[in-house]
Amino acid sequence: MKLARYGDPGREVPAVVLDGGQVLDARPVTDDYHPDFFASGGLDRLREAVQRQAVPDLDVTGWRLGAPLTRPGKIVCIGLNYRQHAIESEMEIPAEPIVFLKTASTLVGPNDDVHIPRRSRKTDWEVELAVVIGTVASYLDSPADSMRCVAGYAVSNDVSEREFQLERGGQWDKGKNCATFNPCGPWVVTADEVEDPQDLDLFLDVNDQRLQTGNTSDMIFPVDHLIWYLSQFMVLEPGDLINTGTPAGVGHGLRPPRYLVAGDRMELGITGLGAQRSRTVASP
């Protein structure tokens, strides 16, 4: 299934998008795709309702496409998780995953505007595979136990302000948590429809120029390892989101570096998970 949310910010309607493009109203099953939906077996109930044709059609003509899930408890991000990205960043291959957090308030729809922060000079793009957690993961015994905890996958853009992140001291979080810095979607594609999360092509264009191409096979730490690893340090809860890292081609790694300015257009996507189209605007 493809889980989507349509409507104005804060008033989105949960929906299911079928392969032919038909959109179904998920409200007979749930009021939204929130942590309680995933924790209470909502995916199974929704799948059964769709199979029984117990959810009606939804006409979303002209509706905004929102982020495909609402207010995760946490967004956990992994830095330098692609070999070629670590090389272009002139940094050593990490011995363990580099972990930082984004606030849920950064999450916006896949086609929403991205705000260039005030005083920003180095706002950058990062196409990433996002993993949605479906069941609690705590002190997992091995990576082999991880995949049962996955509800689905989505496209994420881990927008970053490199000066705030790398040149202002302290934590990376300062360059990662500006408003609108995590466009997500268009959908959450349930795990049963993704045969191998380590064989997905990623791309990102800025103003129609292809700048990022990669495949999740280049990950230093694959999805199952990341979930297992994170579970040793924190409890991953249903509805949590993991951004798993970005391939080479970010603006900070170009020579000379290139960064986003107001008026730029980004298009990015992942095989089978859909695409995003957003523009950049000056922060209000």
Q: Whole-Å distance between the termini?
A: 37 Å
CATH topology of the largest domain: Fumarylacetoacetate hydrolase, domain 2
| Main beta sheet strand tally, sense and closure | 9 strands, mixed
Number of extended strands: 18
Return the string of H and E elements: EEEHHEHEEEEEEEHEEEEHEEE
Biggest sheet, spatial arrangement of strands:
3-2-1-13-10-9-16-4-5
Under the CATH scheme, the architecture of the largest domain is Alpha-Beta Complex
Q: Compute the gyration radius: what is it?
A: 18 Å
**Can you tell me the overall shape?**
globular
Number of domains: 2
CATH top level assignment of the largest domain:
Alpha Beta
Describe the 3D structure.
The chain folds into two domains: 2-51, no CATH class; 75-282, Fumarylacetoacetate hydrolase, domain 2. The longest helix has 10 residues, at 42-51. It is globular. The mean pLDDT is 96. The strands form four sheets. A nine-stranded mixed sheet has the order 3-2-1-13-10-9-16-4-5, with no helix packed on it. A five-stranded mixed sheet has the order 7-18-17-14-15, with no helix packed on it. The protein has five helices and 18 strands. A hairpin with a 5-residue loop joins strand 2 (13-17) and strand 3 (23-25). The chain has helices at 35-39, 42-51, 83-88, 162-167, 223-231, and strands spanning 2-6, 13-17, 23-25, 75-79, 98-102, 107-108, 114-116, 123-124, 127-133, 150-157, 160-161, 182-183, 188-190, 201-206, 209-215, 241-243, 265-270, 274-282. With 284 residues, it is of the alpha+beta class.
